[in-house]
Amino acid sequence: MNDEALGRLCIEDPALEKVLKKTPSERKQVYLGLTSGQRALLMFKALYGHSHTIGEFYWFINCFMMELKNWSEIKMGIRYFGDDEMLRIYEEIECILKARNKQLFDISINDLNSDSELFKSISPVYTQYQEMVPKTMMRIGAHIRSNLDENVNIDPRNPFQSDEIRRDS
Question: How far apart are alpha carbons 68 and 94 in whole angstroms?
Fold first, then answer.
């Protein structure tokens, strides 16, 4: 099972899909019911899933930073997997955005189009992020395979599932 499929297996189950339609309070309860590994993976995926373009990367990190708990959870999640390189990228973008956006509520996904200096400062960090993501996914996949009980709900009716998960294909 490849790393991407393994990540989906850990956090994309029917309970999590249903929770997206719930209130913030109900979502928080589901989040708190996840294992540490599932929470770390979910927070990585939250940023990864909203970083397909440099504009999304910029805008969503700003949004996560506005909700300090979310940004702190994203950084804590990457620390959980011991990925110091990705954490450095997170901290670098955080410093750039804090310096630029004294008033974090005054941001737009179009800021990069109208501010060439901002684009020049974000662009290399986004490139580093894109280059680092595959390595981070491999690191996360290896961690999950080494700690299945903490990350995956094994179906007791399928005794071969853990063997399939442990295989890196």
Answer: 11
Residues 101, 107 contacting (CB under 8 angstroms): yes
pTM for the complete prediction? 0.80
Contacts of 136 (CB under 8 A, 6+ apart): 44, 78, 81, 83, 85, 86
pLDDT confidence bin for 19, thresholds 50/70/90 = low
d(CA 103, CA 112): 16
Of the candidates 64, 21, 19, the residue with the CA atom closest to the CA atom of residue 43: 64
d(CA 102, CA 100) in angstroms, rounded, equals 6
How deeply is 109 buried, as exposed, middle or buried, from its count of CB atoms within 10 A (0-12, 13-18, 19+)?
middle
Question: Quick one: which of 133, 18, 16, 25 has its CA closest to 81?
Answer: 133
> Which tens digit of pLDDT belongs to each residue from 88-141?
999 999 999 888 876 555 678 888 998 899 999 999 999 999 999 999 999 988
> In the predicted model, is pLDDT for residue 55 greater than 50?
yes
Helix extents (H) in the chain: 3-11, 14-19, 24-32, 36-48, 54-66, 68-80, 84-100, 111-114, 116-146, 148-151, 161-166
